[in-house]
Amino acid sequence: MLALKTSKQTVERFAFSADGRYLAVAGSSWKVHLWDLAAKRLKAQTLPTLTGGTGAPGCQFDWLGFLPNGQLFSLSAMGEYVVHDPATGKTAQATLGRGRVGETAAEADCSAFYSTGWETRKWRFDGRKLHEVWNFKVQGHLRGGRGGSVLMPDGTLVSAVSNGSNRTWLHARDSTTGELRGQHHGANSLIRDLTLLADGKTLAFVREQEYCGPTRNAIMVGTVGSKFEPLVMVKKQGEKLYTSLALHPSGKWLAVGQADGVVRIFDTATWKEMVAYEWPVKPIEGVAFAPDGLKAAAGGEDGKFVVWDLDL
Fold first, then answer.
1. Are 16 and 305 in contact (CB under 8 A)?
2. What is the pLDDT of residues 129-154, one digit of tens each?
3. Which of 249, 283, 256, 284 is CA-nearest to residue 271?
């Protein structure tokens, strides 16, 4: 197990390179830290040119991942994106020019990106620049960059959208035209870490508790247009809260992060708990698996995060 630390921030997003050598880490500081896990050291640090260091607290990167060519791509909440090559150390930066970017999903080959902020937009990616394909105004807005957005196998884009009053919807759109296909009302609660399960139709997310009233914190599972049911739920005030989700590349396991520093892994066929890890990181604000499924990472406050080998 590696226990590492970035600059003082809340660590919320991770991205492993395809070979598992590099780990990109981002959170509330407007910086992306690239770690060489083999050398156990920080390899590079990138940040947007215009808004770096000026953003409000919260996760400031709405997409973080490695492109098929091995380059690191990050898209900030203010519409700036950075392409960094770990092999050469070269970085290219650009901006979308307008509007706030929200939850972002990508095609498997990263040829297109879909973002939901004040608008829902599709961007074509030519390897260096993003070019707008379509955009639609959104009633409400994306909440805090952590609701989630996923691209379904049938071409449906599903995104979590909030009206700013602790009420959330899942919007389902046609990824080709951008037209709204349907929506699911999330009641008086907030959605976090929307995740598509291996069957290509079932969604899971963290339902955050209401600001007022009974605790409703739970892991919810279901499909848009149908009823979402709680997989596990916090029933009393003071119990440990669920904070984050990640699906194993095999689709067999779902990792659930908790506020008390515990990461629980469930079998997605039976929903039985397989293993629980307790780490010196509280609260867990983000969790992720490596593409080969052999490693996982979890992070939290004060820039702390851990990387460990899985023993499933």
1. no
2. 899 999 987 765 554 457 889 999 99
3. 256
Structural contact between residues 95 and 80, judged by C-beta atoms closer than 8 angstroms: yes
Give the whole-angstrom CA distance, residue 128 versus residue 143.
28
Q: Is residue 137 within 8 Å of residue 171, measured between CB atoms?
A: no
Got the DSSP string for 125-178? E-SS-EEEEEEEE-SSB--TTTS-EEE-TTSEEEEEEE-SSS-EEEEEEETTT-
CA–CA distance from 309 to each of 63, 137, 173, 176, 282 (Å)? 25, 43, 37, 39, 20
Other Cβ atoms closer than 10 A to 183 = 17
Nearest-angstrom CA–CA distance, 222 and 230: 9
Contact 262, 253 (CB under 8 A): no
d(CA 211, CA 214): 9
How many residues does the structure list for the chain?
312
Candidates 290, 294, 226, 296; CA nearest to 255 is 296
The CA distances from residue 229 to 54, 156, 202, 249, 280, in Å, are: 40, 22, 11, 23, 31
Q: Which of 19, 24, 31, 18 is nearest to 4 (CA)?
A: 24
Phi, psi of 301 (to 5 degrees): -85, 165
Residue pair 157/182 in contact (Cβ under 8 Å)? The answer is no
Q: What confidence tens digit (pLDDT) does each residue in 88-120 have?
A: 999 988 888 666 777 899 999 999 999 887 788
